[in-house]
């Protein structure tokens, strides 16, 4: 059986599209598998919990108890895909913890496959954080997300050399539309009969990219 996937979506910077990516991925996994477990590690609203309350619970990594509770929930081979929306405020503490406990080795021992999705920006804080992750996370487990709405142009060279996930930019009026708390990407795909609309094609393109990412995890473990 393939290992249980755990997707950790992160950035040391706010407002880079991290929760949007978490929403997309969680909805894709819900559509494909019928269920997903999502964890919201954020301070500000709106957050993943607001968009997908049925499958999301809050978590924190402020103290040892919170860290262990989260790890006990996600590093378990139960066949249920996990998505962690890691707030920028918790970035340093979370990856300090994962380094201390040897997350990747422990995950492999428990037949769990973590995938770190780092949402890029062009500032120094992001550059230092990405460099830190490259030193801690194996290349196959680290994916740099190029959100074209945030990174307007080429990624910094140090971020463009590994695995990439490109998130195309949407026009401002569509961004406002999908930011509504009652909006569902899968619901839109099912209800919108015109598959040529920009939002329909954008959502399908991202779902297909998630499928390819999932297949790479399976091949990596085989």
Automatic annotation (TrEMBL):
Task: List the source organism.
Answer: Bradyrhizobium agreste
* InterPro entries (UniProt xref): P-loop_NTPase
Q: Which domain of life is it from?
A: Bacteria
UniProt name for this protein: CobQ/CobB/MinD/ParA nucleotide binding domain-containing protein
């Amino acid at each position: 059986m393939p290992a249980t996937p755990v997707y950790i979506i992160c950035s040391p910077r706010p407002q880079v599209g991290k929760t949007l990516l978490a929403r997309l991925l969680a909805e894709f996994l819900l559509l494909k598998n019928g269920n997903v477990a999502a964890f919201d590690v954020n301070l500000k609203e709106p957050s993943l919990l607001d968009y997908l309350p049925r499958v999301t619970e809050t978590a924190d990594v402020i103290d040892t108890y919170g860290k262990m509770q989260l790890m006990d929930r996600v590093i378990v081979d139960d066949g249920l895909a996990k998505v962690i929306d890691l707030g920028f405020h918790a970035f340093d503490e979370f990856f300090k913890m994962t380094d201390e406990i040897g997350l990747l080795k422990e995950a492999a021992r428990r037949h769990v496959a973590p995938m770190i999705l780092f949402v890029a920006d062009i500032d120094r804080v992001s550059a230092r954080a990405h460099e830190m992750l490259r030193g801690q996370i194996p290349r196959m487990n680290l994916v740099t997300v190029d959100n074209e709405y945030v990174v307007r142009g080429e990624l910094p060279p140090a971020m463009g050399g590994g695995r990439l996930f490109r998130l195309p930019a949407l026009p401002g009026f569509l961004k406002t539309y999908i930011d509504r708390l009652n909006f569902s990407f899968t619901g839109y795909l099912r209800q919108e009969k015109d598959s040529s609309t920009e939002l329909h094609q954008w959502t399908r393109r991202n779902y297909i990219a998630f499928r390819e990412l999932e297949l790479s995890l399976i091949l990596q473990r085989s």
